[in-house]
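Researcher: Let's run the pair from yesterday's discussion. Sequence first, then tokens, for each.
Model: Starting with the first of the pair.
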Amino acid sequence: LIHAIRAMAASRAVSLVVVVAPPDGAPEVKHLLDEHALPERTDYLVVPGGETRQESVRLGLEALPEDVAVVLVHDAARPLVPVDTVDAVAAAVRDGAPAVVPALPLADTVKEVEPAATPG
């Protein structure tokens, strides 16, 4: 979670990170955030989530100030998002895209192994 928050906060396009915690886990998540050094130029808000991802996203959106014009929804299970990707998504929305789903090329990993030796 901390890596995902730092990834978002590394972007100059992000001024507020709303962390949607498990429904009964907001105090623990807030405590976790308080224990780690996070960028001071970014504000953080922790809200309890819902029973589904969709409900959690809705609750996170409802927690936003009314003047927020661009919203990025990020899954903390993918904490290593490059800051360039965050910047590109925010820029695309500011340039008029109604929604953006980033996709990054993946490098396949191929490993060659020798067959196991069998006794006998």
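Model: Moving on to the second of the pair.
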Amino acid sequence: MLTKGTVKGIIANLVIVEVDGAVSQNEIAYIDLEGTRLMSEVIKVVGKNVYVQVFESTRGLQVNSTVEFQGHMLEVVLGPGL
């Protein structure tokens, strides 16, 4: 089951999220922005508050937007020899 959260504060590309379960540092999260999913990464965990860095523009993002944590870190597939 994926952990969910709610946006509680926004400072440029830094978003503070209140979570309903366990999350870990460097975990990937998606923030819902009117049907668009903004990719972000957990950079700090303080109790039920999690600080995430958003990789895209946060223009239009509002407090109480929903956040879905993926339970894993960012991954990429590399070619042979890398």
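Researcher: Give me one sentence on the second I can quote.
Model: The chain has a mean pLDDT of 95.
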